[in-house]
Please model this.
Amino acid sequence: MENKVYYLHSTLEIPLSEVEDHIKNLNPPDGLDSADIKRRSNTLIISAVVEDSDLGKYTPTAVIKGTVTELKLLKELTEEEIEALEPDQERPMDIIEIATFKGELDAILQNTAFQYQMFQVLCEIAERGSKGSLEAIFIEDGQLKVVKITEGEVKPAVIKITEERKDVDIENGVNWRDNKYIN
Model:
């Protein structure tokens, strides 16, 4: 049975520089040669790089997709620097770029070829994060597994069914086959 991701929900926020460092120094999972990181405006794309593969020439490999936002933080100043500020002078700020990976499976982890390997890369990135979480249900070596990484720490997780399926009332539904408004 092939390793596969079935469910993924992420709210990760990580400094872009940390993501770039991780990809640059990546120890790729089996089957992956490396990963490539590109930025287009405020979109971040981390692509699977596979040199020797039985994939067709035009088969897209998996990508992790995120966004980049700017976060303004007050600069840390010494007491002397704070006292030297003029009364109407604003405190200096640092601007940090943050990579965010928010959403469900198809919004973050796109294309199926080498998707599981890129999921492993995303989990490694999540373990470096300090804000947000990643939850996933996946098959690994024929076993159904679950992972939850919150603020960089792997937490215990279980699969739990929380809602009962509601039966569909066929009698009160729309009969699309005999509908006079549809020709």
Notes: The first helix runs from residue 16 to 24. The two ends are 45 Å apart (CA to CA).
